[in-house]
Write a structure and sequence with these properties.
This protein is mainly alpha-helical. Helices cover about 75% and strands about 5% of the residues. The chain has a single domain, classed as Rhopdopsin 7-helix transmembrane proteins. It has 10 helices and 3 strands, in the order βαααβαααβαααα. InterPro entries: GPCR_Rhodpsn, GPCR_Rhodpsn_7TM, Olfact_rcpt.
Length: about 300
């Protein structure tokens, strides 16, 4: 069927049936979002200003922090406004941009975490060649490739989504324009979109996870051959922050997508909100502890 009724704006339901809960979420999300922006900004500033942190690991960390700021800023400010508004609308272009950015930044983070795992592998398994392999240009191209791949594949997904007929349906049962919530509005065949979404998930989520797993298997094999306990602890400490971020990131994704479907759809929305707001705010805390350890060692 042709898309006879053009959609110019969308209504984001959020938790409109639970206004008191939305007030609580407003306070919590505002506090966490503020901590996220300030924490990641301070981390970027510290990595830029302190010469002792001018290394590949902290270069990639700055990219990760920038990604977390952009990712949460793509939907949290409007969501906070909607918590206090009776009319919760977003323009068609705003919804399209929001969906694209959340897709692209989430995809890029998966790729960047794999790049950071490779950096740790080289640092521990090939320490004598570390500066040669992880040169400034190599790090730059790895970062550019991660951003470019994530944004390009997400652009294709977004274009295919918005090419579907929607027949005037414009009520999104979510806090923001999430791709699965948008696809549910279509009155056309979404089988191709679903297939491409699964393929993109495999490429951008599972493939990086396999690379991360392989890197840490090789790292663990090297660490276990270190004769002294102090040496093993020092070697592992260089990976601990990244490994913690990976576990939190993929653990949240796994719980969100592989858990049994909740009887109350609002629970799924709150879990997605946790993934989008809380997880990025943990990265500065985790890496700040590592920064403190590094500076003390230096």
């Amino acid at each position: 069927m042709a898309n006879e009724t053009a959609v110019t704006e969308y209504i984001l339901l959020g938790l409109h049936e639970h206004p008191n809960l939305e007030i609580v979420l407003f306070v919590l999300c505002l506090g966490i979002y503020t901590m996220n922006v300030l924490g990641n900004s301070l981390l970027i500033g510290l990595n830029m200003l302190d010469p002792r942190l001018h290394s590949p690991m902290y270069f990639f960390l700055s990219n990760l922090s920038l990604m977390d700021i952009c990712g949460t800023s793509s939907f949290v400010p409007l969501m906070l406004t909607n918590f206090l508004e009776a009319q919760r609308t977003i323009s068609f272009l705003g919804c399209a941009l929001q969906m694209y950015l959340t897709l692209a930044l989430g995809s890029t983070e998966c790729l960047l975490l794999a790049v950071m795992a490779y950096d740790r592998y080289v640092a521990i398994c090939q320490p004598l060649r570390y500066t040669e392999i992880m040169s400034r240009w190599t790090c730059l191209w790895m970062a550019v490739l991660s951003w470019g791949t994530g944004f390009a594949i997400s652009l294709l997904q977004s274009l295919l989504t918005w090419s579907l007929p929607f027949c005037g349906h414009n009520i999104i049962n979510h806090f923001f324009c999430e791709i699965l919530a948008v696809l549910k509005l279509s009155c056309g065949d979404i089988s191709l979109n679903a297939l491409l979404l699964i393929m993109a998930t495999a490429v951008l989520t599972l493939a990086p996870l396999l690379l991360i797993g392989l890197s840490y298997i090789l790292i663990l094999a090297v660490i276990l051959r270190v004769p002294s306990a102090a040496g093993r602890c020092k070697a592992f400490s260089t990976c601990s922050a990244h490994l913690t971020v990976v576990v939190v990131f993929y653990g949240t994704i796994s719980f969100m997508y592989f858990k049994p479907k909740a009887e109350d759809p609002n629970l799924d929305k709150i879990i997605a909100l946790f993934y989008g707001v809380v997880t990025p705010s943990l990265n500065p805390i985790i890496y700040s502890l590592r920064n403190a350890e590094t500076l003390l060692d230096l």
